[in-house]
Design goal:
Blueprint lengths: L2 E12 L2 H7 L2 H21 L3 E5 L3 E7 L4 H16 L5 E15 L5 E4 L1 H16 L3 E4 H7 L6 E2 L4 E2 L6 E2 L1 E3 L1
Parallel strand pairs: 4-6
Antiparallel strand pairs: 1-3, 1-4, 2-3, 4-5, 6-10, 7-10, 8-9
Length: about 170
């Protein structure tokens, strides 16, 4: 069935992928990215999350919110943060909001829809522009604040396609 429910949404994106793809042999790059995606998938899934889409140089993952889920998200974020220091440099963006979940898309994964999904992808672009390796929305940051150290960014920032300026936190 199709339901609207609160979810944690995570976008990961390899930084400098275009330059990397021009300087590394394609088969080596494919092996490196494939290994990275598999390692990230294991981290996400072992902490109760699911990868919804592979994006070539990144992925979109989510958790249905519920009892104990923030602790699982925290555990995944800490493992991914540790992973950021290894083979590939990548950015992590986290958001929490109500989205429509259900049905199956043409790619076979669960369909996730709503402005909050659009918001997290736009946040990833903002994180790149701000050169932030780990960025969370104010909502996600406040829900994790007792579990994970966060620092609020000094200024509010516009998110393309959204009418206001928003607060964000580093994690």
């Amino acid at each position: 069935g199709i339901k609207t429910r609160p979810c944690w949404m995570l976008v990961a994106d390899i930084q400098g992928f275009s330059a990397l793809s021009r300087t590394m042999p394609e088969d080596n790059l494919a092996t490196l990215v494939g290994q990275w995606l598999l390692e990230c998938k294991d981290i996400i899934e072992s902490n109760g999350g699911m990868i919804n889409k592979y994006l070539g140089d990144g992925f979109f993952a989510y958790w249905h919110d519920g009892r104990g889920v923030p602790a699982l998200v925290r555990k995944a974020l800490l493992a991914l943060k540790d992973h950021q220091q290894k083979k590939l440099v990548f950015r992590l963006v986290l958001h929490h909001g109500r989205i429509t979940v259900g049905g199956v898309s043409a790619g076979g994964e669960e369909s996730l829809l709503g402005s909050e999904v659009n918001f997290v992808f736009r946040m990833e672009k903002l994180a790149g522009k701000l050169n932030e390796p780990r960025l969370a929305s104010e909502m996600a940051g406040s829900l994790l604040s007792t579990l994970l150290p966060t620092t609020r960014l000094k200024d509010l920032h516009p998110v393309p396609g959204f009418p206001e300026q928003y607060a964000f936190v580093r994690f």
